[in-house]
Each structure stands twice: as C-alpha cells, then as structure tokens.
Give the backbone structure.
Amino acid sequence: MERLTIEVPPESLCIRQAECPNGHSLMDPSHPMGDSPSIRVAVVSAAGKGELHLHPYYGNHEVHSSVELKDGELYDMSCPTCQVSLRSEEDRCVFCAAPMFVLKLPKGGLVHGCSRRGCHNHKLKLVDVTAQLAEMFELEVRPRY
Ligand SMILES: [Zn+2]
Ligand SMILES: [Zn+2]
C-alpha cells in the first residue's frame, strides 16, 4: 500500500462515533468534554480498575480517569459493554514500543493511540477512501491488477 499523509490542525476533527471491535458504541453523552460526548472505556492501571473518558477531539490528550494514572505507566483499555480489549495485537508505538489501542470509526476508519500515559503518539487510519479522494481531487481511479 502507498501511504498518504494528511495534515490537519490539532483538534480540528471531533470524533462523533467510535466503537469497540464488536460494534458497541463508546460515546458517552452523559459525560461531555469540549461540548461533545466523550469516549468512555474501562481501564485497568496499577492503581486498579476504573473508567476513563477520552476527549473526542482528535489530538486532544485530556482524559478524565476514575483511577490514578501515573506518567509513563501502561494501562489497558477495554469496552465497558463486552469487556473486549481495545489493544491492538500487531501495532506497537513507534516512540516507546508500548501496545497501541484501537477505536473503530464508522466506514472503516481507525484511531490508534499509545497505551502509555504521557506518550502522545496517535494516528488516524482511513480505509476505502480511494473513490472519495478521486472525486475531491479529480483523480482517476485505476483498476488494480
Ligand atoms: Zn463491546
Ligand atoms: Zn508510545
């Protein structure tokens, strides 16, 4: 696959829908952050089990946690509905080698984030965008061989 880099100003994208791998919505309208529903996950840190709210603005690293998260600590995130781990098996942080966690977006998008507290590595992966890109930039979609 060829890689395409898209640059966006920090916090110019707000995540409206994120899901666990089993399709449960992680959005929590009862706990808004920055005027929008936050993303709620179950968290396990050295201090114990709790709940973590992630800021819905892509690139905003503010979190509200019910348990203490120490800087540099690894924490595990899972779906509050089905308890499936949100950790990616194959994806490791390029900065600190910690496992990455994954949030599913509608239409095949993925948000990856580092599971180490204080490491702000994250990326947005978009799939099946060839046709949309072609339309936006008047490109021709060629059949693949
Ligand atoms: Zn789930
Ligand atoms: Zn990292």
